[in-house]
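Field guide to reading this record: the first block holds the primary sequence, the second block holds the structure written as discrete tokens, and the final block holds curator observations. Each block starts with its own label. This record concerns Protein mab-21-like 3, catalogued under organism Trichechus manatus latirostris.

BLOCK 1 — SEQUENCE
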Amino acid sequence: MKSLTVGNLEDCLLRKVDLRRQLISQTMEEIQKVVHCLTTEISHQDIRFQAVPYSDAYNGNIKVLTPSHFLVTVPMKGLAGYREAKERHWRYYTLQGARLRTPVRSPEDLQQWLEVKQFMKNLWQWHEADVNIEGDIVPAKVLQVFQKLVENAVRTCHFSGKVSMLERYGSVIWVAMETSACQVELELVPAVEIPTAWSAKARWPRCLKRWPSPERVECIKSFGFDLLARSNYHWQLSFCRAEQVMLELLDEDGGCRRKCFQVLRQMKEDVWCPGKRPVLTSHHLQTVLFWTCEKYPHSKDWQVFSKSFLRLVQKLHKCVSQHFLKHYFVRKSNLLRYANSVELDAVAQKLVAFLKNPQISLP
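BLOCK 2 — STRUCTURE
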């Protein structure tokens, strides 16, 4: 076994980063073909769902959470001209449409209700009882419809040997897929894309912050947000497009932010938190990166790889050990709120060991 310190860790891990990129690229190509076929069939069965396009470049509907776990957002069609809800009112219905004596709990900070009337243009199908209760588009009912469509599409597209439905976990529809390299898991999520507005819950940027620049902030916010069907009553806010733009603009002023993030992700996947459904994903690391970039906004803060990388690891350790990581755009939301405490503590211990002796052992 050979030990590497942070000083010569960079070249070694960047080679592994490049191998990862090649593997992901090959896997993504296979996933795109399957997802495009499945969602095309789904859109033929139900006009409310849109096919995920195949793209030779970056596909914004497929996000890599780990090399074997991909988030696939399936756009919902026939909802345009979004407006924030003006009045708040309690909901007293069950998912079966029965009346409750006490109201349904309010949305958490990264969630919201969604009413058909919030869209100036909407298909009449969104008023149907299979997805709508008292004017609300209900995520749980959308997921019921969507799951049946996915099951039918797997059979119709003759993917029975390549793609299989996994047992549903909470409000998530999982699909297992065999690729040429390995088996991967796809998390299929219906999404309302809102590219023309910025969520009122995302009070960003914060005052007197120098990163990103005011010009870049306007560009980032122009990409809007999405609402994902990932719970029973409430829609989850997502800012994938805005976050992707931020990643693409990381080092436009020079520095090694991207390199630090890539090496951090590689260490997380190889050493600190490996596995198919780890407690930490690329999105957690990305959020840690954004907060660190905001705290250290200048190019001069990101010139020396070893110093910059260790600063990022320290921030990650602080968040993991405290079980607290603020969403970058919606600060009141803790991304680790429902994470497994035992798994987080195990990762924190590995990070402590690394920070005390910043080296890794390779064959």
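BLOCK 3 — OBSERVATIONS
Residues 165 and 175 are 5 Å apart (CA to CA).
The longest strand covers residues 183-194.
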